[in-house]
Specification:
This protein is α/β, with parallel strands linked by helices. The chain has a single domain, classed as Rossmann fold (3-Layer(aba) Sandwich). It contains eight helices and five strands, in the order βαβαααβαβααβα. It has a five-stranded parallel beta sheet with strand order 2-3-1-4-5. It is globular. The termini are close together.
């Protein structure tokens, strides 16, 4: 079983890369499917779960890392969400099928499975352009507001990872491959990324 995880900066195209890579390799693909499963298992609304995931952990001390495997003494929705995501992602790995998982710190949660971990980044102007092109219907943010959104979501991702691991989010040594999508059409990057991943899995056999 081969597992590829994709961590990404908001607006960098990590989701598109993951989907295209899964299609190219014939792997199962998990992204919004995880949110749907968490929503079903927790009784929370899927849109609410997305909002929670983007809000960060400023109001909580970063002290949960050692307790995620046991009892947590807070009943906040965010902690419930984090634990349920952990269960869902571990359940995906337990299926024993080749797959790609986008986001949600799957690289940390599935470390024992030795996944191939990718980090996708891009220059700010590239992320702004991509975010504008793919904005949800009805969303009309100014450039200033969008810049603030990019920073907020990436900060939230870094804070969530800090709860799970001492390895910082986005630090290059924590990933097997860092992909900068600036100046690239993502579909043209897929064969090279796939070849690199397959070579890595071959070396691990």
């Amino acid at each position: 079983m081969n597992i590829i995880t994709i961590s990404r900066e908001f607006g960098s195209g990590g989701r598109e890369l993951g989907k295209r890579l899964a299609d190219h390799l014939g792997y199962d693909y998990y992204d919004s499917e995880i949110i749907a499963a968490v929503a079903k298992n927790s009784g929370m609304d899927a849109d609410y779960i997305r909002t929670l995931g983007d809000d960060g952990w400023q109001q909580y001390p970063i002290t949960f890392r050692s307790t995620l495997g046991g009892t947590l003494y807070t009943q906040s929705n965010k902690v419930q969400l984090l634990l349920e995501q952990k269960r869902v992602i571990e359940g995906i790995a337990a299926l024993g099928k080749d797959c790609i998982i986008v986001g949600r710190n799957a690289d940390v949660l599935l470390k024992k499975y030795q996944p191939f971990n990718i980090f996708v980044c891009a220059e700010t102007e590239t992320k702004l352009k991509r975010s504008l092109e793919r904005a949800p219907e009805g969303e009309q943010l100014t450039e200033k507001q969008l810049r603030r959104k990019l920073k907020k979501i990436d900060k939230a991702r870094a804070q969530t990872r800090a709860l799970l691991s001492s390895s910082p989010w986005g630090q290059r040594k924590e990933y097997h491959l860092t992909v900068n999508t600036t100046g690239w059409e993502i579909k043209k990057m897929v064969p090279a990324v796939a070849d690199f991943a397959m070579a890595w899995f071959g070396r691990m056999e």
